[in-house]
Amino acid sequence: MLILSRKINESLVINNNIVITVVEVGRGKVRLGIEAPSEIPVHRQEVYDAIKLGETDAKSKKLSTL
I need a labelling partner for 55 at 20 to 30 A (CA). Which of 27, 37, 44, 64 fits? Predict the structure, then answer.
């Protein structure tokens, strides 16, 4: 894991086409702005996990009907 320090309005760039900017810091939270091409999905971890779980459930149901 890479750990970086950034201040408000400072950014980091990933793969020349994804920019993550620190928008706000406070109350135990950090707000990030993310600019990425529309073909690249961007999800919070819990949403990503739910999507993957749903895909796994769908595959299991499909296999059980065969």
Answer: 37
Handedness of CA 49, 51, 54, 56 (dihedral sign): negative
Q: Rounded distance, CA 27 to CA 6, Å? A: 17
pLDDT at 66 over 90: no
User: 42 near 19, Cβ under 8 Å?
Assistant: no
Please tell me the distance from the alpha carbon of residue 25 to that of residue 40, in angstroms, as a whole number.
26
Q: Which residue has the tokens 């939270």?
A: 29
Domain assignment of residue 15, yes or no = yes
Least Cα distance to 34 among 44, 13, 19 occurs for: 19
pLDDT tens for 1-55 read 999 999 999 999 999 999 999 999 999 999 999 999 999 999 999 999 999 998 8
pTM: 0.77
